[in-house]
Amino acid sequence: MHSTKITIIESRNGVKDAKGNGLLEKVLSDLNIDVAIQRVVANAGSHGIDNMKANELRGYFKTNS
Q1: Is the pTM of this model over 0.70?
Q2: pLDDT per residue over 8-49, tens digit each?
């Protein structure tokens, strides 16, 4: 198993990694959202508290991003 150490810096400009990259921006990036949706759909994920079905996610993110 490979482990990676990540240094997180919190400043007035938000939370950034050691290289100065915005972590929130990474989490909300189009690529990351797309990969997450693919995983949920591939695993036949069921709806959560919002009652949104897995196959509705992609349309929701396209409309709201």
Answers
A1: no
A2: 555 566 666 666 667 778 888 888 888 888 888 887 766 677
Give the other-Cβ count within 10 Å of 55's Cβ: 13
What is the domain partition of the chain in residue ranges? 8-63
Greatest C-alpha distance within the chain:
40
Helices and strands (H and E) in the chain: how many: 3, 2
Residues 49-64: pLDDT tens digits? 778 877 787 888 788 8
- The phi and psi torsions of 12 (rounded to 5 degrees) equal -65, -25
For residues 27 and 14, give the distance between their C-alpha atoms in angstroms, rounded to a whole number.
13
